[in-house]
Amino acid sequence: MPRLDHFDFLAPLYDKLFSAPTGDHLAALTKLPCEGLLLDVGGGTGRIAQGLVGRVDQIVVADASRRMLSQTRNKPGLQAVMCLAEDLPFASGCMARVISVDTYHHLADQQQSLQELWRVLAPDGIRVVEEPDIEHLGVKLLALVERVLMMRSHFVRSERLADDLKALGAEVEVVKEQYNYWVVARKE
Ligand SMILES: C[S@@+](CC[C@H](N)C(=O)[O-])C[C@H]1O[C@@H](n2cnc3c(N)ncnc32)[C@H](O)[C@@H]1O
After folding, report:
1. Is the peptide bond before 33 cis (omega within 30 degrees of 0)?
2. Does residue 31 come out as left (phi exceeding 0), alpha (psi in the -120 to 50 range) or beta?
C-alpha cells in the first residue's frame, strides 16, 4: 500500500474545502438511474458518490486512504472499501457503472488501474473518468503546486486517456467544460 500522507492529512477537512456537487451532471454522463452496483474508485470521503445515492441500487466507494473512507462511513447509502485501484477485491463484470473523479492523476500505476477497472465493469457498463484538463492554464498551475507538495501526480490529456480506453475495446466520448474533462467509455 503506497503512503498517502496528503489525503490522510486532508481527510477531516476535505468536505469543508471542496463542496459537493448535486450529482446531476455526472448522473447524466453515467446514464443513471440504472440497476446494479456503482463503484466510485478513489472516491475519498464520498463527496461525489453521495450525490448519486438513490439513482442506482448500491454504491461502493473504494479508496486507499483509511482516513478519507472514515468520512464516507458517515454518509448514508455508501459502502466503503479500502483497496487500491490497481488491485480491486471485486469479481469481474460485477459493476454496472465505474466512476472516478479527480483521482486518475493520483494513481501510482494508471495503466494497471485502467485494466483493473475495465475488468470489474459489466458488459454494457459505463466508465466515466472526470479529470482536471491539463491543457487549461489553471490546471497547469495546479499541477505545479502538486509537484511542489510532492504529491507525485501525473496529469494526462483527455485524448491520451481516450486512446488507452479504446485500446481496451471501449467506445469512447470526451466532454470538456472549463477546467475539467470527462471521458465516457462504454463496454460492449
Ligand atoms: C483528490 S482525491 C478525490 C476524492 C474524490 N474522488 C472526490 O472528488 O472528492 C483523490 C483520492 O484518490 C485516492 N487514491 C490515490 N491513489 C489511489 C489508489 N492507488 N487507489 C485508490 N485510491 C487512491 C486518495 O486516497 C484520495 O482519496
Report:
1. yes
2. left
Residue 84 is given by DSSP the state B
Residue from 3, 6, 7 to probe ligand 1 pocket by mutation (most atoms less than 8 Å from CB): 7
Is the pTM of the predicted complex or chain greater than 0.85? yes
DSSP per-residue codes, 132-164: E-TTSHHHHHHHHHHHHTT-------HHHHHHH
- Tell how far the Cα of 2 is from the centroid of ligand 1, in angstroms: 12
Q: Give residues with Cβ within 8 angstroms of 108, minimum separation 6.
A: 2, 86, 152
CATH number for the segment(s) 5-186 = 3.40.50.150
- Per-residue confidence band for 80, with pLDDT thresholds at 50, 70 and 90: very high
**What span, in angstroms and rounded, lies between the C-alpha atoms of 46 and 36?**
18
**Residue 117: predicted pLDDT:** 98
- Which atom of ligand 1 is found nearest the CA of 100? 6
15 is written with which cell numbers? 468536505
User: Cα(142)–Cα(158) distance, rounded to whole angstroms?
Assistant: 17
Interval 157-175: pLDDT, tens: 999 999 999 999 999 999 9
Neighbours of 101 (CB within 10 A): 21
Positive or negative: CA dihedral 44, 79, 166, 113: positive
